[in-house]
Amino acid sequence: MTDTASATGPGTGSATGFPYRLVATDLDGTLLRSDDTISRRTRDALAAATEAGAAHIVVTGRAVPWTRHILDDLGYNGLAVCGQGAQVYHAGEHRLLTSVTLDRQLAGVALAKIEAETGPLYLAASRDGLDGDVLVGPGYAVGGDLPAVPFTDASDLWSAPLNKIYIQHPTLSDDELAEAARRTAGGFVTVVMAGAGIVELLPLGLSKATGLSLAARRLGLKAADTIAFGDMPNDVPMFGWAARGVAMANAHAELKAVADEVTSSNDEDGIAVVLERLAA
User: 2 pLDDT exceeds 50?
Assistant: First the structure.
């Protein structure tokens, strides 16, 4: 899957009959199937959209170090929005174009307020940069085989710039934890729920829409040019920004509630179903 628009300039979808000039896709649970692959049908549908003049931008909650290997394996050469909007990354050049970091003092206050409400949390943190480590504290469960560095001394968490902090709780559900975090610390950080076991604290005001708007601007594209695909509540701002938001059948109810359309699941080529219809 190659982002031809990144090499040739902004797409001209409206001139070729394809109704959108930008296709923005979340990664996990959306573009990727459950086995972390992309079907041939979805690859072909995206290739047809880009050949028709549309740009494709991956928009993921993963920071660059947890995204880069996937994009490289896919042969993806365009822009990617990583870290919930904190990073705009040029995959073809392996270059970080923009990066927003978390105010560590505010994050410390936010954590204290959340723990005063919920009790002790399990913590992890994503360090800034192309090769920033993900630090994982005692009790925090990392999904899959993603690389992480364990820590036991809390001071290690704050020793370098961070994109985000991950929080887990021994008994609260993800939705309960996210709601408690927003209620107690929403004035200090942005709280998002990005997947099973993934509740994150971000720089205040940051969202996928923030990063996507920056990436789109680099291609000369606008919200009105954009169709977006996603599956989790962290995709809500992206749907609010884009002209059309399409939720996967496997999406969280919060995202389905604001979607313009619900397509098939990520395992049933939901992106391809919509793109093929639009191309026809």
Answer: no
Supply the angle between the helices 174-185 and 104-118 in degrees, to the nearest 10. 120
Flag whether pLDDT at 174 surpasses 90: yes
For 134-173, the pLDDT digits (tens) are: 999 999 999 777 889 999 898 888 999 999 999 999 999 9
Sign of the CA dihedral 233, 109, 118, 182?
A: negative
* Spatial distance between the Cα atoms of 208 and 86, rounded to a whole number of angstroms: 8
Contact 68, 87 (CB under 8 A): no
| Helices marked H in the chain | 4-8, 13-16, 40-51, 64-74, 104-118, 174-185, 208-218, 236-241, 253-256, 270-279
pTM of the prediction? 0.89
Phi-psi region of 24 (alpha: psi -120 to 50; beta: other; left: phi over 0): beta
The answer to whether the beta carbons of residues 61 and 198 sit under 8 Å apart is: yes
Tell me how far apart the alpha carbons of residues 212 and 66 are, in angstroms, rounded to a whole number.
18
Stretch 175-186: mean pLDDT, rounded?
A: 97
pLDDT value at 228 more than 70: yes
Dihedral (CA of 27, 194, 88, 136) sign? negative
- Provide the 3-class DSSP secondary structure of residue 135: strand
Calpha distance 99→121 (Å, rounded): 27
pLDDT for the residue numbered 109: 97
Amino acid at 178: A
pLDDT tens digit string along 194-224? 989 999 999 999 999 999 999 999 999 999 9
